[in-house]
Amino acid sequence: MPHVNASKNFVLPKDEAAVIPVDQVKVNSVTDFSIYINKDGQYDLFSAPGYKWHNHNLEQLVKDGHGALFYHTADSAKVDQYLKISQLPSIDPSLPPTQRVLQITDVGAELTKMLYDSPLTGASIAKGEEIAGHMVTCLSEDNTCVVALGKLANHHWYTYYHSARVASYAIAIAIEMGMTNKEQLEELAVGCLFHDIGKSKITLEILNKNGPLTNDEWGMIRRHPELGDEVVHESHLTSVSRDIILHHHERLDGAGYPHKLGAAEIIQEVRIASFADTFDALTTNRPYQPSRSRFEALDLIRHRFLEQLDKECYKMMVMILQRVAKNP
Hints:
This protein has 13 helices and 7 strands. The chain is mainly alpha-helical and 328 residues long. It has 2 domains: 8-80, no CATH class; 88-326, Hypothetical protein af1432 (Orthogonal Bundle). Strand 4 and strand 5 form a beta hairpin. Helix 3 (97-117) runs antiparallel to helix 4 and helix 3 packs across helix 5 (158-177).
């Protein structure tokens, strides 16, 4: 048990305490706030911020009679965010991949919406990592299941669904390339899930504007990779995931942003994420452009963007879609 009982610094004054039922704390979740327990009428520190919960901890608390936990009222906003995240639907691993990928994308979109509404927390990152794990497992079983994402292509929540679809396409491409390392695939998935988090600092009026953007608005949009890097600066995201967030708009011909990197400076995971990002944008209805079919998008990429994007990614997506066409 992580319980700490040391000095008065680890005791919560009763008039500053609020309750969170123990059954609302979820296994594998992370609490970004201190948790206290009632011990002989005194609220003693049980766990510090950033604690990841395991089943045996929760079972022991219930066994010891702690049906209620406590937190400092100053942490109310963090607790509200945690509870919203913990209430997201669970992924059903028994569903076939074509159905499961839709469920994963739904949950990913809900999480992305929360990231636009609230600050990034350890709880939201942990949930993103959990979603990434489900995504890798699902697509490792059948990476052609990404064709089911077309059912979501015209969803009015484009801004929120986009990142989850990009992650799915990226993992499908990586698996087609022969990537099998689960940790590497999950780093890629997490980076894609959070790749547009910098847009949470941009108003939805700009993001969803129905018409051409002004130069100033485009300037703001082009800042989102750097804004995203600032958002995750203090997080425990890996360097690969952070590289995806900062560099997914870099291009192999050096014409990308924010740093105009050359091809040799762009790692494989970023190349995959960039292709998936472009592919999803071209196949989705957006305020300023109609959607294209997947093959129309690939044809456009081949004729206009292939010098900017990774050719191997293009080949892998073609192979995935051809395999589906042969075995509908």
